[in-house]
């Protein structure tokens, strides 16, 4: 009888996941940049929110959630914490939150990704599932932004150009 030792290899490293997420964030930032100022804050279709509101949601989830994970703080989600009036304010805060995400993401140990965390006191899932939700939510809202831009006659950035 022969036994064979097999090594388990990780599908994706933490740094690769962060790079993937930041690629999505880079693309979403370009979508924000593409919007004319007025339409960013006012245009909507079918009762959906203007894209500025969607961008604020994304801004107020990622960094604060990762900080909460690191600090074991499950305070309620607060979208009202940021109320921009200009595209410039959104882009500035977007860039600031990118650094917050980089800072806190890199503090999550590999073991911690598997631990349950009650995000915002509402969503009890393993940390990795919460992070995947942040990415999925961003893709979902960015797609809405693409629909808005196309309906305005504006060509959105190519979705595959994330870096």
Tell me how many strands there are: 2
Q: What is the number of helices?
A: 6
Give the biggest sheet. 2 strands, antiparallel
Question: Which term fits the overall shape?
Answer: globular
Observed structural traits:
163 residues; mainly alpha; 6 helices; 55% helix
Secondary-structure map:
Layout: H1 14-34, H2 37-42, H3 51-59, H4 62-71, H5 87-105, E1 116-119, E2 123-126, H6 127-151
What does this structure look like?
The protein has helices at about 15-35, 35-40, 50-60, 60-70, 85-105, 125-150, and strands spanning about 115-120, 125. A hairpin with a 3-residue loop joins strand 1 and strand 2 (about 125). It has a two-stranded antiparallel sheet. The longest helix has 25 residues, at about 125-150. It is globular. The chain has about 160 residues and is mainly α. It has 6 helices and 2 strands; from the N terminus they run αααααββα.
In short, what is this structure?
This protein has about 160 residues and is mainly α.
């Amino acid at each position: 009888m022969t036994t064979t030792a097999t090594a388990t290899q990780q599908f994706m490293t933490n740094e690769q996941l962060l790079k993937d997420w930041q690629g999505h964030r880079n693309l979403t930032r370009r979508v924000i940049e593409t919007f004319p100022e007025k339409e960013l804050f006012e245009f909507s279709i079918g009762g959906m929110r203007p894209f500025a509101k969607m961008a604020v949601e994304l801004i107020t989830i990622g960094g604060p959630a990762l900080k909460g994970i690191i600090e074991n703080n499950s305070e309620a989600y607060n979208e009202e914490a940021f109320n921009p009036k200009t595209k410039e304010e959104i882009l500035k805060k977007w860039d600031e939150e990118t650094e917050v995400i980089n800072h806190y993401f890199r503090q999550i140990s590999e073991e911690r990704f598997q631990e349950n965390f009650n995000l915002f006191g509402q969503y009890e899932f393993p940390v990795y599932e919460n992070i995947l939700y942040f990415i999925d939510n961003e893709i979902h809202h960015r797609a809405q932004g693409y629909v808005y831009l196309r309906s305005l006659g504006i060509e959105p950035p190519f979705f595959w150009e994330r870096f």
